[in-house]
Amino acid sequence: MTRDALDRARDTVLIVTSHEKLAREIIFSLGPGYAATRAANATEAFSFMTFQRPGVIIADSDLPEKSGIEFLHNIRGGYQTKLIPFIMISRKDNTQQRIRAIEAGADAYLKYPFLGEELRAFVASKLHKYREFYLLSITDELTRLYNRKEFIKKFNDETDVRNSGTIALAILDLDFFKRVNDLYGHQMGDQVLQKLAEMLRGRSSSSFFPARFGGEEFVILFPGFNTDQAKVVMERLLHDFSLVPFKTEKTTFYVTFSAGIAEYPAMASNISELLSRSDQALYAAKEDGRNRIYSFSPIMARNDKFWEYLRSNRGVFIDSRGCDSITKLPYLPQLLETVVNLDFELNSIGVLVIRFRPLFDFEKYFGTKNYYYDIENISIIIQKSIELIFPTDMYVGHSDIFDREFLLLFPSIIDFTLNTERFNEICREICTTIQYSLSEFSMNMECSFGIIPYERMNPHGMYRSINAIRGEMSIHSDKSEKFINYLKTMGNGGGSEDLHEIMEIKNFYSIDLLEPLYQYPALKEPLSRDTFFSAILEESITGRESLGTFLVALRGVVPGDTGLPLLLPWISSISFDEYVDIAAGVFGERELVILINESGIPAVLKSGYINTPASLPGTVSIGLDNCFIGADILGYLSIMDFRVCIFSENISRKLHHFKDRIKIISGLILFLDQVGIPALARNVQLEEEYHILRDLHISCAGGAYLETIREGIMEEAPLKL
């Protein structure tokens, strides 16, 4: 949350009383400077706080359902509410009650009737002190710059807001600063630090966020900037600072600094790696003589995350913490254990169960790792969707190790059964949002939801209640019928007209110039994802005859020779040499790139057909498709003469949510550059995905988003006369 958002939240006053007259008097006393909301009882108050945190709570000591003291205990016991300033108002002049309220954590206790000026003073004072405390906690005392904690929070806020946007980070370190302290004293050293901080603060903007990490080390965040842009700013700063005279009684001296710059997400997948890369560039700048700015380059450090990934041995079922080895989420028993040990009072638990069923044997055709990527994608999408719609305490896990079923628990201090339909409505909205985000996935989605009572002393009863909800699954989205219809069309050996109904020819475009470089066949919406097309081909084409029929029909769909290579997927039921011969015969002189799934490479290598490029017809080359970066990927790329390497949709889908995955892809791209193989990404749907792929220096990409921006550019282009 930004500081502005925090300030707005603190100006919201929640008034908890069943007496309308008291509520009106409080609102009148506060005046127009606050946004006041009234709750008639504790249940309504917690219902309000489920969706918004107030800046101050003013509560009547005499509440229905539970007393004001009990309500205060609940507030102080809640993880997200315990720090909210709390003012209690009582009609009784009861010393013992006042003492109990203060002991329970009340910030003030007023007797009714109260003085409006006194109430306003208490509210303003609590908000002011909180702001002061907050400011002190996030800034450095000497330089008045933000500290390390706030800097990292700013980075996280920027990545949440920008998702795929570029962020540059610079670390600067004063040159020979120890010598300044030794020669001129620490007081003069402080003046140097303060002068640099003053210049940094003077440049502060939405794209320049400075902080002090300690000693003579400063950091600057450049939201929206790449390394080249940040370097221009830093070089200007270095020039200006190096001209500042520092005077003592006997001499005048000048100070310079060195700096290293790195860029997110192209060079790092998280703040720790980004700082590490910047620090490595800073080290190189100091090694080369100081008083200079360096940007990080791969020669400064190897890609540890990529090599670590290739060497990793993932647990089969559980990781070292007993959680699912893919999503890192706990299973139901651990989930319930966490909930029953929460340190605040619970009344009920909302339960949402979501299950996914693949339309076909996904792992058979595309490999286990691609399936894992999809499960990771689904996990993050579920959590992001819930945070967007229902921002309350949430615990996510799996029902068991045998089924890809996600279980979501919403423990609540209020009783959800008081408004069951509202909870059900929220669950339906969550499921619809998830379904929309997963429209490109080759899975059906089922869900069920309900409310169970919280029974801490009867955990097995809660377990049985959850299992009862699991047994009431209903299909929320069903793609089976469409998939089967497409399968029938392909299996019946339809001609070009039939294929025109379900297929189209798409392009891969250069990522920078958006010029078409390759063509490939794909299904039309709503099953446009490549996995659908490949699976339908694998299921429907079983021999030479059906392959020949399909390719002849496809030739009628493919536009006349555009000079662009046509990418065709190899079908594993046909031997590779037969496939090449038939495809080359059907398409004649048309340049073809036969794509081999990474999971299918061992079978092709075993056949011995493509040990050398000379074994292929002159118009045919091979490409690596559905690349999931398996353990043997570097060996495949080294011994096979691939024309292109196409990353799987599974690894690139929702890429902006997976910082480690970005780093892994970046590592392979560095290797591809060394062996001269262009990297491609297909079916890019989102702007966030596009920007990350561009930052990773992917050669070209295809998909709806590329088509959209290219159409926009073509419409804006001037007419050529």
What does this entry look like structurally?
- With 721 residues, this protein is an alpha/beta fold.
- The chain has four domains: 3-137, 3-Layer(aba) Sandwich (Rossmann fold); 148-301, Reverse transcriptase/Diguanylate cyclase domain (Alpha-Beta Plaits, 2-Layer Sandwich), CATH 3.30.70.270; 332-478, Nucleotide cyclase, GGDEF domain (Alpha-Beta Plaits, 2-Layer Sandwich), CATH 3.30.70.1230; 482-716, Alpha-Beta Barrel (TIM Barrel), CATH 3.20.20.450.
- Helix content is 46%, strand content 20%.
- The protein is built from 28 helices and 25 strands.
- It has an eight-stranded mixed beta sheet with strand order 19-18-25-24-23-22-21-20, with helices on both faces. Strands 2-1-3-4-5 form a five-stranded parallel beta sheet, with helices on both faces. It has a five-stranded mixed beta sheet with strand order 7-8-6-11-12, with helices on both faces.
- Helix 15 packs across helix 16 (420-437).
- The chain is flat and about 95 Å long.
Give the secondary structure arrangement, pairings included.
Elements: H1 3-10, E1 12-16, H2 20-30, E2 35-39, H3 42-51, E3 56-60, H4 68-77, E4 86-90, H5 95-104, E5 108-111, H6 116-138, H7 148-162, E6 167-174, H8 177-184, H9 186-202, E7 209-214, E8 217-223, H10 227-242, E9 246-247, E10 252-253, E11 257-264, H11 271-287, E12 293-295, H12 304-311, H13 332-340, E13 348-358, H14 362-366, H15 368-389, E14 395-398, E15 405-412, H16 420-437, E16 443-453, H17 459-470, E17 474-477, H18 480-491, H19 496-502, E18 503-510, E19 516-523, H20 530-540, H21 544-557, E20 566-569, H22 576-587, E21 592-597, H23 601-607, E22 620-627, H24 633-639, E23 642-647, H25 649-652, H26 659-675, E24 679-681, H27 687-695, E25 700-701, H28 704-716
Parallel strand pairs: 1-2, 1-3, 3-4, 4-5, 11-12, 20-21, 21-22, 22-23, 23-24, 24-25
Antiparallel strand pairs: 6-8, 6-11, 7-8, 9-10, 13-15, 13-16, 14-15, 16-17, 18-19, 18-25
